[in-house]
Design brief:
Chain A is of the alpha/beta class and 490 residues long. The first copy, chain A, has helices spanning 10-17, 28-41, 54-61, 65-77, 126-140, 155-167, 182-194, 209-217, 239-249, 270-283, 339-349, 358-368, 371-396, 420-429, 458-473, and strands spanning 6-7, 49-51, 81-84, 88-91, 115-117, 177-180, 200-205, 221-226, 253-256, 287-290, 316-321, 333-336, 401-402, 410-414, 432-434, 449-453. The interface between A and B is large, with 92 and 92 residues.
Chain lengths: 490, 490
């Protein structure tokens, strides 16, 4: 089965481990074993990954081979590793003492007892969705006679998306729009088209985990630019640092989330947007602007879309999605950029997919026509949910320092101890799914941070916080955690 | 804009050119220019690709630099190339004398005058689709409260797909099924998971163009194994040759279409399926079995699914799709393999996409429950359409030698002249979209072949053949063709 397995090199593995050494330098082997177990349970070290031989890892970490050997022994005993003599060691899931479960661990069912705080995602806007779906089934009639492949997107939807940009202050024509299967595919198409193996992609740090996964998937390398502080605890961009990094690292692409940045919630101001576009023009570096959360601002003032500073340039590529504003189950996203680049992306798309589903496109076209009304209610609900969660956190975790975002679906919290991964593992045993801080960073950063969505129904949110409190209290006494599967994030 | 462009190296370019030299060795420059223009118009050489400098191409082709310079000059005059001094030359589209058009050239609308023989795809089965869509909108109600991300697929659909395999003689459980966005994404996920840059993937030759695109997208390399002859003109597999190629080339993956092979229409017999699986076991080489067309056989006897010879092995990975049997506009496909590999593919999926749309999955679950009845009518129609096309071809093109496939949607035709690319370019001017033979091959092979779907309505099929006859007659006298865009294939 070796052929089907993946490997991780000693230096990548060392980076993934992050800061694992105990401050007093004692108990190195058990600290190393603990960290590896955390990475497996948290999903950052995928299952059935062949880890480096003891000798190589010892060299990469600058510790003795005996230390690594002892750590591997511990992991084998805990059934986190299995080894075959002469062949190597692979990660695996420790057995689940609670017995088998048919819950899909990647995507637990909403009606189970598991409280999902790994996904920042809302239920569908029920009434509007039912109306749109029923109408779309009617619209579908006229298209059943065609072959159904829509590589660029249905004209009706491309027009609706273009109209929405135009309304937001960014004049757009339908030929500047490519409809994709969700925002993630939009990101993947752009990364695939504009980067090659080894190329650098500049990212905010922290950033959206699935964008990091996409960059890794295409064998490009993320270059992190740290987010700075902001009075409301979200974050800010240091444009000077960003420009210097573009100059020094010469990335092929800059991936940014200027609207309710995921996970910090930061919003890029108008002046900085202009500077960003000037930087792109000056250096010829394309910007990939992720606007997934743009429709979910709580205030009246929405910044000008970044692309409005260069509406016809292929150097600004905007990605949008119906998943957060409308519903994740729709899987409709899009790219907006210069028309020739749209056509080029569409032509390259056939390698990975032959177009978006027709019916979903019809539904989104109907919903987008009315998007401000459809989202009005959920923006009010989200604001109230944010305030409720902040209230509860102040009582339950007075020493945690949460952000106070002006839009989006989640808080970014600075914990009082660097225990985010450990908390996520223990919380899982209390029936709460978390995405630990390091999921949003590179090389194990953000162990002191946690993203907490406020998208659960209020009673379930309260229940989740109670369970989190138990998990947090139990952290030091936690027995080796045993969990059924890594957690996906959205 | 250099940063956003792609390049093609001199040796890749030379391979793509295939056999371009005139038999008498005269008029080299104009023959070279003609071939480059064909490749651009036919879509095999993408737009805005930077082609090699004259000196490098001359070396790769073994011709004088003067020859290449003259060819490039011709291409610049014809507006197929544009150059910037010191920067290089890029492919572009020659201007369209008919003026701009808002037709999506990648996916022309069915109601236009363009007759699409590039896609082997049927309209939706109208009545069944309407019923299933209406019912699915009802089913959707129960799921609107969840977040809608379904990375593995809706349980109801996974169960329906598993049941269908079980009925076909391949016992399958839902946890052996991963739902994807169409069969193409299923292929892409497997190629991404099991190959790395430079790895070899064995393919039949000819094969499905979008699989070749997928292999190239992941920077793997196709290793072609020629299809042999068959009395009905489709094709056959030489298992000895295939085994020898696996031994010599040590591919990481073997991609095969044993059911109504695309484009030849060949069907792999039961004995060969068993040998194939034995080969996979013996060499540890995984098989990627594309069953996209499996529901569209004309006869009563269906061969045992290949995976039935190793139902629980991750070495046999089967890909299926609703696109051909049901409708392309649904974009639902799946992978069937060992459950651990299913989970691994799902975990890696987040890099490119966050799951399949919920409503489409509900529709397919309903349609699959009844798939034999839903497809019964179209299998009868397809058989009649095949015979009708064979009849007409015998009259219109008596010197072409078409296959007589026992299922699927298209003929594979041996032409009496190696003019497939040229025909596809000229046919476009007559309002017929074709996928030329070389789209199904590597390095310019199959210039003497053409895939012709029989999926158009009969009156439109007849009209298309009349136009093709005109195009074929006009081949030698064809003026330089000017076309608005490359053609996609499905």
């Amino acid at each position: 089965m070796t052929d089907l397995d993946r490997r991780i090199g000693a230096h990548s593995f060392a980076r993934l481990l992050g800061e694992w050494r105990p401050p007093d330098g004692r108990g190195l082997a058990s600290a190393l074993a603990d960290r590896v177990r955390l990475l497996v349970l948290d999903g950052r070290l995928p299952l059935q990954t062949r880890i480096p031989p003891e000798r190589e890892l010892a060299a990469a970490l600058g510790v003795s081979r005996t230390t690594v050997a002892a750590a591997y022994d511990t992991l084998r005993e805990a059934a986190v590793l299995h080894s075959r003599r002469g062949a190597g060691s692979w990660t695996r899931l420790p057995p689940d003492p609670a017995g088998g479960s048919d819950v899909s661990p990647l995507f637990p069912q909403a009606d189970r007892d598991l409280l999902d705080l790994a996904h920042a995602a809302l239920p569908a806007p029920g009434a509007a969705m039912r109306r749109a779906a029923a109408a779309a089934v009617h619209d579908l009639d006229a298209l059943l006679g065609g072959h159904g492949y829509e590589m660029l997107g249905l004209p009706a939807l491309r027009a609706a998306i273009a109209d929405r940009y135009t309304t937001r202050g960014l004049p757009t024509t339908p030929d500047q729009v490519l409809v994709t299967v969700g925002g993630q595919q939009a990101i993947a198409l752009v990364v695939a088209a504009l980067t090659g193996p080894g190329d650098r992609v500049l990212v905010e740090h922290p950033t959206y985990p699935n964008a990091l996964a996409c960059i890794a998937h295409h064998r490009a390398r993320p270059v992190p630019v740290p987010m700075g502080p902001h009075p409301n605890g979200t974050g800010s961009w240091d444009l000077d640092l960003l420009a210097a990094t573009v100059r020094d690292a010469a990335p092929r692409l800059v991936y940014l989330i200027p609207e309710h940045q995921n996970p910090t919630g930061a919003v890029l101001d108008d002046a900085c947007r202009l500077r960003l576009v000037e930087l792109a023009r000056r250096t010829g570096t394309p910007l990939l602007i992720d606007e997934t959360l743009v429709e979910l601002g709580f205030g009246d003032h929405a910044p000008t879309p970044t692309a409005a500073h260069a509406p016809d340039s292929p150097l600004v590529i905007t990605v949008g999605s119906a998943s957060k504003a409308l519903w994740g189950g729709l899987r409709v996203g899009w790219v907006r950029t210069a028309a020739p680049l749209v056509r080029r992306l569409a032509a390259q798309r056939a390698a990975i997919d032959l177009g978006s589903p027709v019916l979903e496109q019809l539904i989104v076209a109907r919903l987008l026509a009315d998007v401000e009304q459809v989202t009005a209610e959920r923006r009010i609900e989200l604001l109230a949910a944010r305030d409720h969660l902040l209230d509860r956190l102040a009582t339950t975790f007075p020493r945690w320092r949460p952000s106070r975002p002006t839009g989006g679906m989640s808080l970014w919290i600075e914990l009082d101890e660097p225990q985010s991964s450990q908390l996520s593992v223990v919380a899982r045993r209390h029936g709460v799914l978390l995405a630990a801080g390091p999921r949003f960073g590179i090389d194990g950063a953000f162990e002191r941070h946690l993203r907490l969505p406020y998208t659960l129904r209020r009673d379930r949110m309260d229940e989740a916080l109670q369970r989190l409190a138990l998990a947090w209290q139990g952290l030091d006494h936690a027995a080796p955690a045993v969990e059924p599967e890594p957690v996906a994030v959205a």
